[in-house]
């Protein structure tokens, strides 16, 4: 690490931030004690940081291998998580590159970071020193740490590894590292409040069935791309009281929340398309709260499997896209026109639709191909 921080090495890294990395790797390093692979790793890190965690764009910050950068949370999601959490003692049991820990720790006075990768932990400790941030750094396997630990914490945070030894992605809690089903009782012995970051692909009903005392599941998207699920466990939570919250960061959309069990009891009303069409954002679609959103916003659904909603009067603050629409016939679609094509619960894909009608992507207008309870329809935004 000392060699990579050499002033001339850092100048070389900064001078090559836009250089093609493949061609750079073919060159010989201009420094005897720093390889070109190490230089490229830092260039990759700085480029990732520009978009993902710009707070690290400071002198003497060191970046780990690309896989660690890929697995780290973004600054946007980490800042959101930190907004409502505070206390005296926090522990991150799977520190990784420490992005979540850095922001979560800002409202806590004592911070403990556990990480089994010694090199990665040294990088985090170095960076936190640069950022004037204090913590207790423990290079230990999580399970071994839990066996020895007698200390209690106000908050436990962990982000289990979601790949096996062959780097294949895993989603079930028992397949993660650590196995959350095996350690959840142990975790509750040292804290009443536990937060777990999980893959956006994990099934919510499965989660609620296997996680004890699950008080909340937050589905966090950034600009309508679902990035992660955040599970909050509180030892005082009664069974059946799980709240689901859908968050779309870097948008002006409201947070949509509902009770998981109540969703099962809600019945939507159905209608043919009215003046406005409502398309939920991807966090809402992931949540499965299709009847709760209909009830909360007083909207009618087009079809049980379409997940489009409609109303005569404009409903404000809907978490998703709202279009003023008209019902059209296929003959009204002219060859060469440009549209944003959406197809849901319809036999043709968007690409097949564009090919059939000889239209292309672009413009401001939308074409929506779907169906109601009565028949297949085509809607156009106006």
Summarize the structure.
This protein is α/β, with parallel strands linked by helices and 382 residues long.
What structural class is derived from the secondary structure elements? alpha/beta
Identify low-pLDDT runs.
Answer: none
Query: What is the CATH level 1 assignment of the largest domain?
Result: Alpha Beta
β content, as a range? 15-25%
Number of domains: 3
Q: Say which CATH homologous superfamily of the largest domain is assigned.
A: Vaccinia Virus protein VP39
> Helix and strand succession?
HHHHHEHEHEHEHEHEEEEHEHHEEEEHEE
Strand order within the widest beta sheet:
3-2-1-4-5-7-6-8-9
Number of helices: 14
User: How many strands, which pairing sense, and closed or not: the largest β-sheet?
Assistant: 9 strands, mixed
- CA-based shape: globular
Descriptive account of the structure:
A hairpin with a 4-residue loop joins strand 15 and strand 16 (376-381). The protein has three domains: 7-63, no CATH class; 70-251, 3-Layer(aba) Sandwich (Rossmann fold), CATH 3.40.50.150; 264-381. The chain is α/β, with parallel strands linked by helices and 382 residues long. The model has no long low-confidence stretch (mean pLDDT 93). Helix 1 (7-15) packs across helix 3 (36-52). Helices cover 30% and strands 25% of the residues. The protein contains 14 helices and 16 strands. The longest helix is centred in the N-terminal third of the chain and has 17 residues, at 36-52. It has helices at residues 7-15, 21-25, 36-52, 66-71, 75-82, 99-104, 118-130, 142-148, 180-190, 204-210, 260-265, 282-287, 290-296, 350-357; strands at residues 89-92, 110-114, 136-138, 155-158, 193-198, 214-222, 225-234, 243-249, 256-259, 276-280, 300-301, 309-311, 320-328, 338-343, 360-371, 376-381. 31% of the residues are buried. The strands form two sheets. The chain has a nine-stranded mixed beta sheet with strand order 3-2-1-4-5-7-6-8-9.
């Amino acid at each position: 690490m000392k060699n990579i921080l050499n002033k001339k090495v850092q100048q070389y890294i900064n001078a090559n931030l836009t250089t093609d990395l493949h061609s750079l790797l073919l060159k010989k390093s201009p420094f005897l004690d720093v390889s070109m692979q190490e230089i490229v790793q830092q260039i990759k890190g700085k480029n990732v940081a520009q978009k993902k965690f710009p707070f690290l764009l400071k002198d003497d910050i060191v970046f780990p291998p690309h896989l660690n950068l890929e697995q780290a949370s973004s600054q946007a999601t980490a800042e959101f998580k930190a907004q409502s959490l505070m206390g005296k003692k926090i522990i991150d049991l799977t520190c990784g590159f420490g992005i979540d820990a850095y922001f979560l720790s800002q409202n806590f006075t004592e911070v403990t970071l556990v990480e089994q990768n010694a090199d990665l932990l040294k990088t985090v400790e170095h960076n936190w020193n640069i950022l004037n941030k204090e913590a207790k750094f423990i290079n230990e396997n999580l399970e071994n740490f839990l066996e020895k630990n007698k200390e209690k914490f106000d908050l436990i945070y962990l982000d289990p590894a979601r790949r096996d030894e062959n780097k294949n992605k895993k989603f079930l809690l028992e397949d993660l590292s650590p196995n959350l089903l095996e350690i959840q009782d142990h975790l509750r012995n040292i804290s009443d409040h536990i937060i777990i970051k999980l893959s956006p692909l994990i099934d919510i009903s499965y989660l609620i069935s296997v996680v004890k005392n699950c008080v909340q599941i937050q589905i966090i998207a950034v600009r309508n791309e679902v990035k992660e699920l955040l599970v909050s466990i509180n030892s005082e939570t009664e069974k059946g009281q799980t709240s689901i919250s859908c968050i779309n960061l870097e948008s002006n959309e409201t947070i949509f929340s509902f009770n998981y069990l109540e969703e099962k009891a809600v019945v939507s009303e159905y209608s043919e398309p009215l003046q406005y069409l409502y398309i939920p954002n991807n966090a809402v679609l992931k949540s499965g709260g299709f009847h709760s959103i209909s009830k909360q916003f007083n909207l009618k659904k087009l079809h049980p499997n379409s997940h489009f909603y409609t109303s005569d009067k404009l409903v404000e603050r809907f978490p998703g896209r709202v279009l003023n629409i008209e019902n059209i016939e296929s003959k009204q679609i002219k060859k060469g026109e440009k549209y944003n094509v959406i197809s849901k619960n319809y036999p043709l894909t968007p690409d097949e639709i564009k090919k059939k009608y000889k239209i292309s992507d672009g413009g401001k207008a939308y074409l929506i191909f779907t169906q109601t309870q009565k028949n297949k329809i085509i809607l156009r935004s106006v």
